Automatic annotation (TrEMBL):
HTH deoR-type domain mapped to chain residues: 3-58
GO molecular function, one term: DNA binding
Name recorded for this polypeptide: D-beta-hydroxybutyrate dehydrogenase
Stored SUPFAM superfamilies: NagB/RpiA/CoA transferase-like (SSF100950), Winged helix' DNA-binding domain (SSF46785)
SMART domains for the chain: DeoRC, HTH_DEOR
InterPro entries, alphabetized: Carb_Metab_HTH_regulators (IPR050313), DeoR-like_C (IPR014036), DeoR_HTH (IPR001034), NagB/RpiA_transferase-like (IPR037171), Tscrpt_reg_HTH_DeoR_CS (IPR018356), WH-like_DNA-bd_sf (IPR036388), WH_DNA-bd_sf (IPR036390)
Keywords, alphabetical: DNA-binding, Transcription, Transcription regulation
Coiled coil, from the record: none
Top-rank lineage group of the source organism: Bacteria
Amino acid sequence: MNSIERQQIIMDKLNDKGSVRIADLTKELDVSRETLRKDIAELGRQGKLQVIRGGAVLNKPVNETIYNQRLQQNLAEKQLIAQNAVKLITEGDSVFVGNGTTAALVATAIKTQGFNNLVVITTSINVLKALEDADPIQVVLLGGGLRRIEGSLSGPLTLANIDGIFCDIGFFGSGGVSVDRGVTNHYFSEIEVDKKMMQHCRIKVLLADHSKFTKMNPFRTASIEDYDIILSDRGLDDATISSMQKLNVKVIV
């Protein structure tokens, strides 16, 4: 892992939690404290964070607007992905929609499409909000521990509830994507939910705008070939598309 990748992970964690500790990052990224101090110092020089003893904090307080800020990033591309996602759904389907800003836009697109016979299962409060008045769509929220800043549910209760859930198609978000390393994320408990839910979906769809292909996170969710379809946008380079297609994965941009 190079310095750019490490610094991206540090910023992603800061944007989510507001602070990071070098002691924690050392274990997660398997690098020395001195290396992380240099990474944090460089980000501090760029004005992206404030260096404190033993770690760093954001220059501005973290609150619920962090999610909204992420939602606005590459918004047109995410909306395109959401529109293509809806085209994969047919009346009568049971649909899993996971966490993340693109997943929430998929929920909005489902509502706009005007389905009459659909069951949507989710671990996302934001997906629930998008569909709460979308009659006659049946919405099932899996229980679990709430990560407030993301509006996501995970943990032992969520995993137990998945045992009785089976879907025709599932839409899964991502923190980072690599053809070689697969799909990665920051939060281990959410990864466990995605892994189990993927086993309960007949068709598995990855939602990933082109910017996700420049990021890598500590924990791996799945390999590229574990998905049936990858939805991205026209910003994704041809070489990456070709590499994924060679793995017998359908890519839609």
